[in-house]
Amino acid sequence: MDDLDDMDHRILSALRACGTDPRIAGAARTLSRAGEHGALWLAAGLTGAAVDRRRRGAWLRATALTAGAHLASMGVKRIVRRPRPTHVEPLVRTAGRHSFPSSHATSAAAAAVAFGALGAHVVPPLAAAMCLSRLVVGVHYPSDIAAGAALGALTAHAGGRWVFAAVTSPSGAAHD
């Protein structure tokens, strides 16, 4: 086992141990379930579109970016095919057997960047908690989370101009 693998295993073991506290385990399970297939973030984006009529197009585009980032992570998983951790007992079931990158972290980071840029300041800390929850429930290595978060953040950042092109100023001109 090389140094990165050893560090991945040790950090995961330490964070998974936090899940022995029933309150922490319950919160981590709830976050993990809410993040399945990006559901929490898609619901948040659609809610933003419904509530913020002036920027509805931007919210819908930010939601599309979040969904696209999630789909990209699923494609990378099929290529990399890294197995999930087996040295810790998971607290939740998973939709698949591959762990790299974390799709939860990908969609969470994409939402943090895209929705955060629209003023949803509660999303970045919630996204960080979502990422951490995947370690506490024992279904990802820290490097899975880091790679997923990077993929999500980069995807949302790359699409940022497209998101804000949907926002119009009072004169009707597109906002960059």
Structure keywords:
8 helices, 176 residues, mainly alpha, disordered C terminus
Question: Can you describe what's shown?
Answer:
This protein is mainly α and 176 residues long. It has one domain. The protein has eight helices and no strands. Helix 4 (56-80) runs antiparallel to helix 5. It is globular.
Quick recap:
The protein is built from eight helices and no strands.
Per-chain topology:
Elements: H1 3-18, H2 22-34, H3 39-51, H4 56-80, H5 103-117, H6 123-136, H7 142-158, H8 160-164
Helix pairs in contact: 2-6, 3-4, 4-5, 4-7, 5-6, 5-7
Low-confidence stretches: 169-176
Please give the radius of gyration in angstroms: 17 Å
> What structural category arises from helix and sheet content?
mainly alpha
Distance between the termini: 48 Å
Question: How many helices does DSSP assign?
Answer: 8
Number of strands: 0
- Estimate percent helicity: 55-70%
- SSE sequence, one letter per element: HHHHHHHH
Total number of distinct structural domains: 1
- Major sheet: none
Proportion of β residues? Answer: under 5%
Principal-axes geometry comes out as: globular
The overall pLDDT average reads 88
In terms of quaternary structure, the protein is single chain
